[in-house]
Amino acid sequence: MQVSRRKFLANTSIAIVGASLNTNYLFASSKQSTVLGIQLYSVRDDMRKDPLGTLQQLALMGYKNVEHANYINRKFYGFTPVAFKKILDDVGLKMPSGHTVMEKKHWDPSKKDFTDEWKLTIEDAAFMGQQYVISPWLDDSLRKKYDDLVAYMEVFNKSGELCKKLGMKFGYHNHNFEFSTELNNQKVFDIMINHTDPSLVAQQLDIGNMYGAGGRAMEILKTYPGRFELMHVKDEIKSLEAGDLHDGYESTILGKGILGIKEIIKEAQKNGGTKHFVIEQEAYQNISPLNCAKEDLKAMHHWGF
């Protein structure tokens, strides 16, 4: 996600027509075991203006699951957990995962425990029926020294233990810096993967954010088989206006970009351990976000979801 996500959190349609008819059933064998949803950051402006109407439109398109990107002061998009759960129930949507930044302030090293604020975050997520509590950011200060990063990965594991007590799992979602920053001659991404317990910390692989920084989803899926329970399904095109977290690229309607989405998804299902596929599009090329969401869903359906 773009850098504006931090504020927000604390803060293909037709291009596929020429594909082989067999593509429609490319993933049919594993369709029943996957969860398909949309990250609500994809329609962030619509959610800010009219959250109920936006959720209703997504449900009418055929979406069954959403992933939140706005939990502030114990409210989801301005609604209490009780109220927001009722809204989701009323429109027929589930929310198996959500993004909330776990900040340094949420861990008290003197007590070796989490603050009440983070504990309540986990409790609210459990009330909403989430399976995953995903932190989509790593503080700049934690990426400067190898020992500091390794030590904080133990906090990740402890957050996983906390989530496990309530039947959930803690997770992390990458941007680009994990691939462009090295400590002790190791990429930050590799350090994080190798110092977190996969039984406690899930990885949500954002296949678009990494591209401009040299991260390649196929390579990563093969290097760390079984480590990616969730994926942000995203396609990318070159852009002169992309934010600093995209390195000259921006997202586009699935199948219209350069990533080779179908093969990445196939690899994720076969060897990545991926069950949760979350559509995300952050740039729209003069198409409305909701229409992009509709076309993205069509693309996924075309590929057998």
Describe the protein:
It contains 11 helices and 16 strands. Helix 3 runs parallel beside helix 11 and helix 9 runs parallel beside helix 10. The chain has one domain (4-302): TIM Barrel (Alpha-Beta Barrel), CATH 3.20.20. It has helices at 4-9, 44-49, 51-61, 81-91, 116-127, 146-165, 177-180, 188-194, 217-223, 261-272, 289-302; strands spanning 35-39, 65-68, 71-72, 75-76, 94-99, 107-108, 113-114, 132-135, 169-173, 182-183, 186-187, 201-206, 230-233, 235-238, 249-252, 276-279. The protein has an 8-stranded parallel beta barrel. A two-stranded antiparallel sheet has the order 3-4. The chain has a two-stranded antiparallel sheet with strand order 6-7. With 305 residues, the protein is α/β, with parallel strands linked by helices. A hairpin with a 2-residue loop joins strand 10 (182-183) and strand 11.
